[in-house]
């Protein structure tokens, strides 16, 4: 039987958004990130990070920089007893590398993760601090939850209130989903 996933954005959602993060030393988990991720894992959800990394196409960081940051995130989460099932990223930037289906709100990375991990996208949660992070829920039939951060546009919050859900914090996401 397929299981649901928590498709979670990275920057601004589970780690502080350092804008084009290339230095692993700057990885900082946001309050409640490990606790929320662990709750989803214990409830049987696959944990899948899906992140846009346009800084790669812009030449602001390399694939090696991205991988080093990903490894540091994995290590930070492991200290808290959390293991991600997958981390997927889109290295494109439409004005530089042209359009693609993997850049959120595109769903290609979600679809690849679902195929690789045997996931039920319709029972999954799509979590992030921007509308583009939760919009795949509408396309794939899941549940989108926006957690606004300091860089979240007001229009994204208004749209999420109308078409998805909004939670004030990661702890509230856990309460919203599991009661």
Name its key features.
single chain; 179 residues; alpha/beta; Rossmann fold; 9 helices
| Assigned CATH class of the domain at 10-123 | Alpha Beta
The run of helices and strands is EHEHHEHHEHHEHEH
Uncertain runs are none
Strand content: 5-15%
Fraction in helix = 40-55%
- CATH fold assignment of the domain at 10-123: Rossmann fold
Largest sheet: 6 strands, parallel
CATH homology superfamily name of the domain at 10-123: HAD superfamily/HAD-like
Rounded mean pLDDT is 97
Number of continuous helical runs: 9
CATH architectural label of the domain at 10-123: 3-Layer(aba) Sandwich
User: If strands are numbered along the chain, what order do they take across the biggest sheet?
Assistant: 3-2-1-4-5-6
Based on secondary structure, the structural category is: alpha/beta
Kindly, what is the distance between the CA atoms of the first and last residues, rounded to a whole number of angstroms?
A: 24 Å
> What is the gyration radius calculated from CA atoms?
15 Å
What would you say this structure looks like, in words?
It is a single chain. This protein is an alpha/beta fold and 179 residues long. It has a domain at 10-123: HAD superfamily/HAD-like (Rossmann fold, 3-Layer(aba) Sandwich), CATH 3.40.50.1000. 41% of the residues lie in helices and 15% in strands. The chain is built from 9 helices and 6 strands, in the order E-H-E-H-H-E-H-H-E-H-H-E-H-E-H. A 6-stranded parallel sheet has the order 3-2-1-4-5-6. Helix 8 links the parallel strand 5 and strand 6. Helix 1 (33-42) runs parallel beside helix 9. The model has no long low-confidence stretch (mean pLDDT 97).
